UniProtKB/TrEMBL annotation:
This is Glucosylceramidase. It catalyses: beta-D-xylosyl-(1<->1')-N-(9Z-octadecenoyl)-sphing-4-enine + cholesterol = cholesteryl 3-beta-D-xyloside + N-(9Z-octadecenoyl)-sphing-4-enine; beta-D-glucosyl-N-(9Z-octadecenoyl)-sphing-4E-enine + cholesterol = N-(9Z-octadecenoyl)-sphing-4-enine + cholesteryl 3-beta-D-glucoside; a beta-D-xylosyl-(1<->1')-N-acylsphing-4-enine + cholesterol = cholesteryl 3-beta-D-xyloside + an N-acylsphing-4-enine; beta-D-glucosyl-N-octanoylsphing-4E-enine + cholesterol = N-octanoylsphing-4-enine + cholesteryl 3-beta-D-glucoside. It is a peripheral membrane protein. InterPro entries: GH, GH30_C, Glyco_hydro_30, Glyco_hydro_30_TIM-barrel, Glyco_hydro_b. One of its GO terms (biological process) is swimming. Keywords: Glycosidase, Hydrolase, Lipid metabolism, Signal, Sphingolipid metabolism.
Length: 522
């Protein structure tokens, strides 16, 4: 074929166009259907779909990003802001003078299981996966929750101080899971991230010799009383953990007072747990953990109480935060999403915020597939993505400043998990094929994490009438506006957005879709 032939010219144009698209970050989803209501996007060592550029168009235009059950994945488009209303249908009005909480961030957990799965991939696929979460072309994760020693998503039971009676923690040592897996991956994630990661530590259990039941699992609390030697040693265990991770240039924004304290107190939990009543947690913070951190090299590390289901609010917060001795060491209240539908958010989160507005609310754990009636991995489940988006919007609209997914990556079974408590994850790894699948819930997280930068402030938004749409609006530090809209109904909904600063934005939310709109105001 002659080099000047029309066919060659056409091929050259197509090739150059493809290169422009790829370099602009518009890699398309390689969709795979596993028989559920939507698709996953398959990634390997050389290719993964990417989020479209989140650079906003000039004043007078807006960007739109769509994900849907029908298969759209952060599909980008742009439109013109209109000077006049279309005159009919639903209107969402931005109310910029109604100002609420500022965003801290979004992220997931680097459990042992997550690390095992990421490291089961080839070097190229590992890099792709980490870039999807943490790099500047990824979805903007800025929070990583790190279990202190083992949890259910480990392959064995261990703590960092398993030597009987080691009250001085002379034999405290990080585990191979930390040294060989979690720490190197956290360092790589930090190197990819354009901003410092906010690391959050949570412990599942104290060493068995410190506990009333002599075991890491089941119903058991610390021996003795707050202020006693077991309680003081447990507080120093936190300090030692921070010291050891700091040796690897990893510092923590916050620690929680322990994962799901109600489980170790009220139920015979099948996996690692440490029971506290709110009164016991209050006194341990006031007498032991607070003073220990304050006297350490990490006095500015935040302490978050609860780290459990929000059904326990506002009671748990009242007991602890009304106490001046404990309250002075505490910064926030950590909540999990399980059983959220039992108690309205306004009663739990809203009441807690209104009683104690100086303490922030932060979501520290969520996953689907945990319920016995709907267990494990569902590759391509849009319904689960909607569950995430609904809960995040509800939390944000009730003063929560961030939301943390559970495992960053799991295998096809939803593990590994030593107690076989298999669940779902935003990323599922198939090590045999050296691929990973980005679930619909990955994109559900992206609609928030990629757009709500730290410091974004929630503002008022009102609807002109009853609607199935769920929504939350924010003004970012640069003055731009982000509006996130969820349509869980089976019908397309047309609407317009009125921002009194810039004008009217016509839009449509397809059936079963998640939409992020963003525009400049100056």
């Amino acid at each position: 074929m002659a080099l000047s032939s029309p066919s060659f010219v056409l091929l050259a144009v197509v090739f150059m166009a493809a290169q422009v698209i790829l370099s602009a970050g518009y890699n398309k989803c390689v969709a795979r259907n596993f028989g559920y209501d939507s698709v996953v996007c398959e990634c390997n060592s050389t290719y993964c779909d990417s989020i479209a550029s989140v650079t906003l168009p000039p004043l007078g235009q807006f960007s739109s990003y769509l994900s849907s059950m029908a298969g759209s994945r952060l599909e980008a488009s742009q439109g013109e802001v209109q000077p006049k209303s279309t005159g009919g249908g639903l209107r969402l009005t931005i109310v910029p003078y109604q100002k609420y909480q500022k965003i801290r961030g979004f992220g997931g957990a680097m459990t042992d299981a997550a690390a095992i799965n990421i490291l089961s991939l080839s070097a190229g696929a590992q890099e792709q996966l980490l870039r999807q979460y943490f790099s500047s072309e990824g979805i903007g994760y800025s929070v990583v929750r790190v279990p202190m020693a083992s949890c259910d998503f480990s392959t064995r039971l261990y703590t960092y101080a398993d030597t009987l009676g080691d009250y001085n923690l002379d034999n405290f040592t990080l585990a191979p899971e930390d040294i060989k897996m979690k720490i190197p991956l956290l360092q790589r994630a930090q190197a990819l991230s354009p901003r410092p990661l906010s690391l959050l530590a949570s412990a599942w259990s104290a060493p068995a010799w410190m506990k009333t039941n002599g075991a890491l699992t089941g119903k058991g609390s610390l021996k003795g009383e707050p202020g006693g030697k077991e309680h003081k040693t447990w507080a120093q265990y936190y300090v030692r953990f921070l010291e050891e991770y700091a040796k690897h240039n990893l510092t923590f924004w916050a620690v929680t007072t322990g994962n799901e304290p109600s489980a170790g107190k009220m139920t015979n939990y099948s996996f690692q747990a440490l029971g506290f009543t709110p009164e016991e947690q209050r006194d341990w913070v006031a007498l032991d953990l607070g003073p220990a951190l304050h006297a350490s090299s990490y006095p500015h590390t935040h302490i978050l109480i609860l780290d459990d289901i929000r059904i326990l609010l506002p009671h748990w917060a009242k007991v602890i935060l009304s106490d001046v001795h404990a309250g002075r060491y505490i910064h926030g209240v950590a909540v999990h999403w399980y059983w959220d539908n039992i108690v309205p958010a306004e009663i739990s989160l809203g009441t807690t915020h209104h009683l104690y507005p100086e303490y922030y609310l932060f979501g520290t754990e969520a996953c689907t597939g945990w319920n016995a009636l709907d267990r494990g991995v569902k590759l391509g489940s849009w319904d689960r993505a909607e569950q995430y988006a609904h809960d995040i919007i509800e939390d944000l609209n009730h003063y929560v400043v961030g939301w943390t997914d559970w495992n960053l990556a799991l295998d096809l079974n939803g593990g590994p998990n030593w107690v076989k408590n298999f669940v779902d994850s935003a990323v599922i790894v198939d090590a045999k094929r050296d691929v990973f699948y980005k679930q619909p819930s990955f994109y559900s997280m992206a609609h928030f994490s990629a757009f709500l930068w730290e410091g974004s402030q929630r503002v008022g938004v009102s609807a002109s009438g009853e609607t199935h749409l769920e929504f939350s609006a924010f003004i970012r530090a640069d003055g731009s506006v982000v509006l996130i809209i969820l349509n869980r109904s089976s019908s397309e909904i047309q609407f317009e957005v009125w921002d009194p600063v810039v004008g009217y934005i016509p839009s449509t939310a397809p059936a079963h879709s998640l939409l992020t709109l963003a525009w400049k105001t100056q």
